[in-house]
């Protein structure tokens, strides 16, 4: 959880917090400015690999973002990128992004992973490095091309391949080949589902949502209405021109992807009610219609210290004044923001209704 205020931030009312440069917080030694940001459209996975690799998404967003800055890409101190499902050929995708953006060989780029909070971890890592004086100007954000999550061989198939490598003669190899079961070859492991499954309790993320719905008495109708309302609000915001941060994507054939393609203008609670549960069959509440979609996309922010703002005469959008992480029972995963937000509110003497926006 990162607390963000538009510039200037409201006065802090926390008790026992000494005044200081970083908004009066002893753990925020320097002011962290949000200078600018950009994102790609979020493209829905549609039964196959999407048109863009993760590095393509981040590069197209980053290129447009840096082109409108008064400094060169090589003036960045570092590039930090969060990625939960990096491709094997893009393992350190943060470094790839730095090089593809023309930052030069000397600007370090690195990658962080904290599942769904990988992009937030990139921002928090940038904050920490600016705080300690290691960096002054950082490009940070998150990216994933989940439509390109791999299909994997099962353990049975891997052991079969390993056994084949040990065979010396053609007769031995032929005999080993006859041991191959078609079910092992034709039943791949879906990498995305494996990645969305907690390795400790074996639960899919959707099942943890079912746990919270049951715990807090949230019924199917309420979930469908909330989902439909989100689509309609996104539609209205799009018509009002609220998504100016989106950088259109262009694929190799010249096709343009200008907007988020998962927004449904015709969404309704009655329509969503027709969908079947996915994770807790047949009596669950979480469906493909009231869940977040499998998405390809990138979002980037430029963070700067006061020194960088002064040096380049930057016009910040706002300030980051605090951040917090928290752990909890993996079976209750969706409550993470509650545990992270509470200490921030307490430190600043704020109540739930004092905030204009939760994100």
What descriptors fit this protein?
34% helix, Peroxisomal Thiolase, Chain A, domain 1, 12 strands, two-stranded antiparallel sheet, alpha+beta, 8-stranded mixed beta sheet, 359 residues
Tell me what you see in this structure.
The chain is of the alpha+beta class and 359 residues long. Among the domains are: 2-149 and 294-354, Peroxisomal Thiolase, Chain A, domain 1 (3-Layer(aba) Sandwich); 154-187, no CATH class. Helices cover 34% and strands 16% of the residues. It has 12 helices and 12 strands. It has helices at 54-67, 93-100, 118-131, 155-166, 170-177, 182-186, 191-195, 205-215, 220-239, 269-272, 306-312, 336-348; strands at 2-6, 32-39, 43-44, 78-82, 109-112, 137-145, 151-152, 189-190, 249-250, 256-257, 295-304, 318-323. Strands 1, 2, 3, 4, 5, 6, 11 and 12 form an 8-stranded mixed sheet that branches. It has a two-stranded antiparallel ribbon with strand order 7-8. A two-stranded antiparallel sheet has the order 9-10. β9 (249-250) and β10 form a beta hairpin. α1 packs across α2. The longest helix is centred in the middle third of the chain and has 20 residues, at 220-239. It is globular. Mean pLDDT is 90; it is low at 12-27.
């Amino acid at each position: 959880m990162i607390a963000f205020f538009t510039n200037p931030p409201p006065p802090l009312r926390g008790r026992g917090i000494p005044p200081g440069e970083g908004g009066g917080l002893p753990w925020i030694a320097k002011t962290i400015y949000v200078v600018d940001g950009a994102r790609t459209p979020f493209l829905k996975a549609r039964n196959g690999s999407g048109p863009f690799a993760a590095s393509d998404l981040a590069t197209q967003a980053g290129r447009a973002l840096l082109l409108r800055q008064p400094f060169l890409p090589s003036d960045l101190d570092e590039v930090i990128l969060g990625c939960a499902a990096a491709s094997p050929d893009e393992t350190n995708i943060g470094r790839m992004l730095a090089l593809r953006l023309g930052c030069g060989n000397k600007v370090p780029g690195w990658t962080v992973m904290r599942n769904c909070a990988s992009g937030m971890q990139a921002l928090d890592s940038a904050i920490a490095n600016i705080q300690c004086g290691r960096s002054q100007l950082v490009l940070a954000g998150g990216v994933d091309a989940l439509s390109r999550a791999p299909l994997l061989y099962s353990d049975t198939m891997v052991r079969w391949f390993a056994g084949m490598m040990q065979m010396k003669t053609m007769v031995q190899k032929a005999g080993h080949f006859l041991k191959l079961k078609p079910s092992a070859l034709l039943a791949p492991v879906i990498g995305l589902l494996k990645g969305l499954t907690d390795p400790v309790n074996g639960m899919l993320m959707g099942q943890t949502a079912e746990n919270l719905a049951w715990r807090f008495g949230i019924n199917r109708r309420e979930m469908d209405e909330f989902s439909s309302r989100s689509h309609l609000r996104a539609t209205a915001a799009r018509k009002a021109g609220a998504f100016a941060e989106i950088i259109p994507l262009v694929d190799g054939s010249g096709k343009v992807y200008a907007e988020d393609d998962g927004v449904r203008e015709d969404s309704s609670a009655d329509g969503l009610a027709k969908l079947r549960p996915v994770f807790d069959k047949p009596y669950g509440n979480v469906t493909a219609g009231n869940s977040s979609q499998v998405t390809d996309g990138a979002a980037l922010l430029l963070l700067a210290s006061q020194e960088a703002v002064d040096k380049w005469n930057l016009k910040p959008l706002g300030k980051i004044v605090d951040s917090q992480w928290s752990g909890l029972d993996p079976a209750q995963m969706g409550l993470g923001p509650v545990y992270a937000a509470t200490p921030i509110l307490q430190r600043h003497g704020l109540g739930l209704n004092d905030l204009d926006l939760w994100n």
